[in-house]
Amino acid sequence: MPIDPDCLELLSQLEALNLPDFSKLEPAVVRKLYEAMEAPPGEPVSHVSDRTLPGPDGEIPVRVYAPESDAVLPALVYLHGGGWVLCSLDTHDGVCRSLANAARCVVVSVDYRLAPEHKFPAGAEDCYAALRWVAEKGAEIGVDPARIAIGGDSAGGNLSAVVALMARDRGGPALRHQLLVYPVIARDFETPSYRENAEGKLLTREQMVWFWNHYLAEASQAAHPYVSPIRAESLAGLPPALVITAEFDPLRDEGEAYAERLREAGVPTRQSRYDGMIHGFFSMGGAVGRSRVAVDEAAGALRDAFR
Question: Are 262 and 161 in contact (CB under 8 A)?
Fold first, then answer.
């Protein structure tokens, strides 16, 4: 189907801004551009607090969102996208608020270390450390340690899949669910979706090359399953998954291939492609109508997993 009208309008607005191609810029410059773009305010939640958790190389900032409830709640540890290089707690504040309310869970958003200052595996280890804290100390924030999920979008989807592998390989924590929203799964720029969507649909092939080059110290690291989860020898024993993809996204095919590998390994997996959508739509609730449909699908899967 054609690109959704809401997505076309958004792309037109971005084109009118005449922004530079960030794949030609240094990360510090791109971060300033992102910081200058104010996101619309997110929906209210009962409680939001910032704190730090102990990490492998210093404190990890997190933001905790809690809906109205007198009960001990399940938790979603959320890992933001941004190609391991960009974005922050603030850029993904809106989607975390929506997920907390719709899934009726505490959302712990993790401000993991970014590349290129901190290359692989720094960000992944931060995310795993945050998950461990939620499982071991989550009672401090009203979390039931027996009901925890991991989730994220784009590079955060990659890190979510990686942390699920780490949790399996390292003996825990046990996870109820993994939410993978248009995840980065492998360093492969020659899939049909990369060729079809190389330019002009928000995320480009050259930008993904830029992200990968900043994330990895050397290209050979892409073979590691904690970089490219689909390279894992086995995916058996991983938590049930919802994999959301977008039709006009370079990352579409790798996300769908990973969903198939999970199913082949016996992992209960639902894969949901959103036709007409572009990369990033999940976090565009104020501009793209179908964003809310995807957030509600994700929240429904989380509620089912937490029961």
Answer: no
